[in-house]
Design a protein that fits this description.
Blueprint: E1 16-22, H1 25-35, E2 40-43, E3 47-53, E4 56-62, E5 77-81, H2 85-92, E6 104-106, E7 111-117, E8 123-129
Parallel strand pairs: 1-4, 5-8
Antiparallel strand pairs: 2-3, 3-4, 6-7, 7-8
């Protein structure tokens, strides 16, 4: 069979995981479990994979063993859409979250949100849609 005859598999994807790399994996796991309340879905030892919602996961990786390394620059944002951003914001204000922003609305894209950094500087956005098409 030639390469032009090989086709992309036509099966459904099973899981999506975004991997983040940490110097202090135990501190990161405590944050994602205790502050964000994400359930541990897969424990690979030096990689902990947490369920955000059906099909979407975040993987926390010990940078000494992962495929990539920790970097001071974090050009990445983990966004979690929730039904009630105001309730999440009230909760966030009770925690000592790094760079917790005020609640804001972006009418152009139809969201109400706030952001903060996790223990090693990854930005997390918690948002709700303000209109059905957002």
């Amino acid at each position: 069979m030639s390469s032009s005859e090989i086709r992309r598999p036509d099966t459904s994807n099973e899981l999506a995981i975004t991997f983040l790399y940490y110097r202090d994996l135990p501190k990161a796991t405590q944050f994602y479990e205790n502050v964000l309340g994400l359930p541990l879905a897969i424990d690979q030892g030096w990689c902990k994979i947490y369920r955000i919602c059906p099909g979407a996961h975040v993987g926390l990786v010990d940078e000494t063993k992962g495929m990539n390394k920790w970097s001071a620059t974090k050009p990445l944002q983990l966004c979690i859409r929730v039904p009630e951003v105001d309730d999440w914001y009230a909760y966030a204000q009770t925690k000592e979250l790094d760079t917790l922003s005020p609640l804001f609305e972006n009418d152009e894209i139809g969201i109400r949100a706030f952001v903060f950094n996790d223990p090693e500087g990854y930005q997390i956005e918690i948002q709700s849609a303000t209109r059905p098409d957002a």
